[in-house]
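step=encode ok
step=design start
structure_in=
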């Protein structure tokens, strides 16, 4: 395997950095969609020849059926990124009916790539997705298609730096130590996989490896039938994208705990904050807020850290952890707005701004921000769940049920899974299946992370299902967990739309003595 590959090119004032999967101009990173960057890097790396449309589609879109207008749109964006245009075609030339060629002057970076110190404590985590090993050419839609899709999907996240396909796919068939790839590409993690047939089924084994230690952080097996390879491909993509972000964040937090508090970077503080915030109790929320504020102090331009502050403040208001819920709501909104100002393309920032409207009972106003978060990152399970919650509050039961179940499919091990189950169950009860709904919410409320509001939802569903034993159990649980909780507190956090549903909820709250 040849390790001395060019990772950086200069085109005029622009620097095309394959390792970081970005284009810079005068030191600043230019905003660009992952497909545009993949297309541009492919043309530059093959500037000695014409790149056909078929090759472009195979590499950038994984061989999927793509319209000519979609290709033209990405070509236009690639030209604009380098201050070129379709009329001049100074850099990217269209060869009608055949393909495209990069004709501009290119200065290559160093041909010998030095090892890059991987200081994971000082920057956000980085990952290289390698082509999956497979000896069966008929399974290339999985072995090559899934890694390509993962690069595109992970690039939409703001919590990871993802190495471009042109760099990571050079290690096709690599059998050596993954730490060498980590040193060459300057990444913290490598994702590897193997694909093989097993009768009429395809089996995919995936591993996430810490490239510094060569230790396996996470692994999973996926299976599907050979006659539905594209469905298998989509299912694997969706589950891995959501799982990787959670697994890497957890591993980063555990690594950060081994460091002295004085040595923690903004990203280390951020990951530690996430670990605390997702435990959903007053003390951990307080610790999480402290870590997020430390991250902001170390890097005031860190959008996701401000979003973390908003999340912690939201919890203070939503769960009444603070005596001044109104002030916490204002602080949650302010932090989310700051996150958006710093990075309007960050899905987490958009999610937190949307959720901040809940604290004012302005559920409808939250919807565009939640939908924008989903549009930015379609596999963002917590945004999809939040959309389900708004559907429930707005009495749109069927839509809420669909979104809650979609969120669970996207992230089977999500820290908010208990809330997803509760939303699914509550909407089922709303739609008339009280017994099934009550059983689901009861299950969610017994989860270790579940907060007292989920217990209230369980009690309401037990009233609707006319289960006296369940009513008694959850009424006592609520009183023991939060004796001060009132119907007004619950309906402030869950501002159901005026109408029959709100009346049913109020009557159930009265029946359980809240």
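sequence_out=
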């Amino acid at each position: 395997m040849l390790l001395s590959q060019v990772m950086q090119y200069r085109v005029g004032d622009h620097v095309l950095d394959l390792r970081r999967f970005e284009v810079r101009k005068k030191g600043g990173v230019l905003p660009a969609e992952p497909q545009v960057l993949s297309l541009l890097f492919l043309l530059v790396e093959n500037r000695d020849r014409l790149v056909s449309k078929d090759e472009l589609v195979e590499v950038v879109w994984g061989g999927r059926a793509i319209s000519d207008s979609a290709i033209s749109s990405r070509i236009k964006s690639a030209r604009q990124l380098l201050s070129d245009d379709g009329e001049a075609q100074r850099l990217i030339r269209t060869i009608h009916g055949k393909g495209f060629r990069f004709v501009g002057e290119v200065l290559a970076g160093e041909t010998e790539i030095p090892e890059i110190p991987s200081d994971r404590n000082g920057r956000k985590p980085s990952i290289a997705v390698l082509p999956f090993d497979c000896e069966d050419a008929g399974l290339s839609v999985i072995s090559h298609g899934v890694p390509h899709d993962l690069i595109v999907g992970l690039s939409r996240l703001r919590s990871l730096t993802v190495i471009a396909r042109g760099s990571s796919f050079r290690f096709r068939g690599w059998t050596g130590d993954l730490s060498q790839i980590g040193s060459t590409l300057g990444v913290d993690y490598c994702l590897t996989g193997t694909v093989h047939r097993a009768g009429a089924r395809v089996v995919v084994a995936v591993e996430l490896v810490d490239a510094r230690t060569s230790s396996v952080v996470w692994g999973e097996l996926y299976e599907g039938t050979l006659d539905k390879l594209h469905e298998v491909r989509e299912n694997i993509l969706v589950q891995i994208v959501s799982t990787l972000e959670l697994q890497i964040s957890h591993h980063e937090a555990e690594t950060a705990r081994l460091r002295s508090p004085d040595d923690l970077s903004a990203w280390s503080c951020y990951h530690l904050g996430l670990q605390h915030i997702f435990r959903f109790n007053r003390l951990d929320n307080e610790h999480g807020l402290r870590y997020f504020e430390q991250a902001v102090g170390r890097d005031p331009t860190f959008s996701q850290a401000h979003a973390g502050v908003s999340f912690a403040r939201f919890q203070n208001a939503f769960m009444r952890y603070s005596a001044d819920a109104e002030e916490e709501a204002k602080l949650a909104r302010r932090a989310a707005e700051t996150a958006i100002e710093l990075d309007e393309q960050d899905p987490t920032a958009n999610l937190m701004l949307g959720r901040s409207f809940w604290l004012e009972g302005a559920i409808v106003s939250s919807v565009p921000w939640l939908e924008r978060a989903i549009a930015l990152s379609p596999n963002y399970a917590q945004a999809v769940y939040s959309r389900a919650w708004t559907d429930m509050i707005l009495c749109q039961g069927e839509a809420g049920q669909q979104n809650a179940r979609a969120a669970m499919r996207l992230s089977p091990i999500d820290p908010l899974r208990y809330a997803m189950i509760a939303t699914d169950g509550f909407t089922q009860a709303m739609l008339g299946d009280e017994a099934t709904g009550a059983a689901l919410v009861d299950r969610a409320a017994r989860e270790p992370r579940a907060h007292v509001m989920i217990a209230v939802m369980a009690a309401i569903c037990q009233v609707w299902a006319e289960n006296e034993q369940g009513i008694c159990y959850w009424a006592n649980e609520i009183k023991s967990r939060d004796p001060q909780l009132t119907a007004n507190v619950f309906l402030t956090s869950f501002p159901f739309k005026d109408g029959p549903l709100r009346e049913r909820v109020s009557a159930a709250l009265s029946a359980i003595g809240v």
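step=design ok
step=annotate ok -> The two ends are 68 Å apart (CA to CA).
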